[in-house]
Amino acid sequence: MKPTDEALAERRARVAKRWELTDEVVLLRAGEPASWSGTDQHFAFLPHPDVAYLTAVGSPGTTLAFDAAAGEWELFGPRFSPERLVWEQPPTPVGRPLDELGDWLAERGDRSVIELGAGAEMPETLPAAAAKAESDTPATDGDDQPSSAPDDSTPEQVDASPATMVVRLGAAIALERITKDPAELDDIRCAAAASASGFDWVYANAAAGMTEREIQVGMEAQFFAAGAPRVAYDSIVASGSHGAYLHYVYAGDDPLRPATRTVEAGDLLLIDAGAQFGGYASDVTRTMVVGADPTDEQEFLWKLVLSAQQQTIDMCRPGIVWREVHLASARILGAGLVEMGVLRGDPAELVTQGAVALFFPHGLGHLLGLSVHDITSVPYSRTPSDDPVLSRLGPERVLAADMVTTVEPGVYFIDALLCDPARREKFADSVVWDRVDELRGFGGIRIEDDVLVTDAEPEVLTAAIAKPIRIG
Ligand code: GLY
Ligand code: MN
Prior knowledge:
Helix 3 links the parallel strand 3 (72-77) and strand 4. The chain has 14 helices and 17 strands. The chain is of the alpha+beta class. It starts with a helix and ends with a strand. It folds into two domains: 5-177, Creatine Amidinohydrolase, Chain A, domain 1 (3-Layer(aba) Sandwich), CATH 3.40.350; 182-471, Creatinase/methionine aminopeptidase superfamily (Creatine Amidinohydrolase), CATH 3.90.230. Residues 135-156 have low confidence and may be disordered. The chain is 33% helix and 14% strand. Helix 1 packs across helix 6 and helix 7 crosses helix 8 (212-225). The site of glycine has 4 residues, from loops.
C-alpha cells in the first residue's frame, strides 16, 4: 500500500525532529542506475531506501530536499526530453522538475548543503557522530521508541563536520525506519503473500529429476504472477551438498555458462527466496527432502532446526536484546548436536568456544524492510563485536513493537570450516570429527520466517507458507 500523503508527511516530520537542524539544506538523492555496457539500457534500479521511505517513489534522479531554516521539504523528480521519450517511457512525474533543483539551491545562497541517500559520502569513522543520533530525544513523546542495546560507553564529543553530519542524519533516518508503520507492514504482507504463491508451487511441483534452475524459475514465476515486481534478493535453490553454501545462487559458478544440478531422490532441497513488493522484502527459507522419506539424520536435524526456530520466534518480544535470542538458538542447536554425537560437552560452553558456530555460522536473523538486511546490523554507536561467535550476529538491538525481524536458525556441514586443519586441532576435544566425516556432503538445513514484534504475541508474517519435511 502506497503511504498516504499524510503518512509521508508524518515520516518526514519525525525525521526532521530528530535532525534538530536550524540552517542547513539537506538533499536526499535516490541515485542513478548503472549502465549496462553495450546496450542502450541500464541495470535494474532501486532507489536508495531512505529516499524510498520518505517519498514512496523510486525513479532514478528523484531528490528530496529539506530547507531547515524554513522547515520545508521539496520533492524533485526527473522529466525526460522528447529525444529520450522516443526510446523510453516516462517516469511517473513527481514533485518539481529535477532541472529546477539548481535554482532552488541558488535561492538558498551559501548555506551548508548536506548530501544524503545515494549522494552521501560516508566517512571512515562512524561512532562519534552516530552516538549523538542514537542518544537523541525520541521523535515522539511516547515510550514506543526502539531503544539501542544497553551501552555503558559515554558518547564522545560530537563534531559537526560535514562527514559526521552525514552519519548523524543518516542514523536518525535509520532510527525511524527500524519500526514499520501500517503502510510498510502492508507491503511486507503483500511480499509474503507473493512468496507463499511461489513456495506453494514448489510443494506441488518440485520433484526428483528436476534441476535447481527449473525449480527456481517455476517458483519465481509465481512470485511475479502474484504481483511482485521482482525478487528481494537472488533466490537460493540449493540441493544436496549445495545447501552447505549459505548463499548458493544460480550462475555463482560461471555467469556465462552456469551449471545447474538435477535434484536426486533423497536430497535435501534448501530454498531461501522472497518476493519484493512496493520495495519491501520478504525472506523465507524452507528445507525439505525430495522424493523420499527423510533419513534419521535428516529428520533429527530438521526437527532440531524447527524447534530452535519455534522457541526463538516465541522470544521475539519487546525489550529482549537480540543477542540473547541468537545465543538461545545456538544453545538449542548445540544441545541437539551433542545428542546426535557430533559435539561433546556442555551446550552453553560449546557456544562460547565457537564450536556450535562451526555448524551454525551466521546470525539468527536480521531486520527486514526496504532492504532484505534492513537498516544496520548493529546500532550506529556500537562497534561490531570481534567475538567469533557474535561477529555475524545481526542486529544487536533491543526488540521493540513494530520491528520486523527474520528468525532463521540452521545447521550445515560446510567443508571450508570442517576440513580446516587448524579448526580440527582447535576443536579436537569438543567436536567428534569421525562423526563429522560421516556427515560430510549432508548439505544444510535452514528454516526462516519473517516475524513482526508486537506488544502481544509475535506475529509470523510468513506463517501461510507450509513447512513440509518431505515433498515430491
Ligand atoms: N535471505 C538471505 C539472507 O538473509 O542472507
Ligand atoms: Mn534472511
